[in-house]
What does this fold into?
Amino acid sequence: MKRWQLLAAQVLARLVFLALEVTLLVAFAVFALDVPMRGRSSAFAVVCLVGAGAFVGVGLLLAARPKTVEGVSGLMNLAMFPMWIAPGSSFRSSAFRSRLNRSCGRSR
It folds into this structure.
């Protein structure tokens, strides 16, 4: 198998899983949490594809240089470290809907 075939297979497999994951996540948000779906579905699909492409690019960038699996693991940990430390820094919990606040044990 050629390298480009392996890369194409990995990217296509991730796109298939992306479609399944996004569909389930959006369906849960719409039906269970009453999140309105505003805007065009095509624009949402484009944003999902661009985001997936960005993460593929970051993964390839981090995996291209190291010579060992341990090196890749270390660089991935370094890239994900800010997400572990400050995952909720970009939004306020008071902005959640009241149903979600009640389920998290917060009252409004």
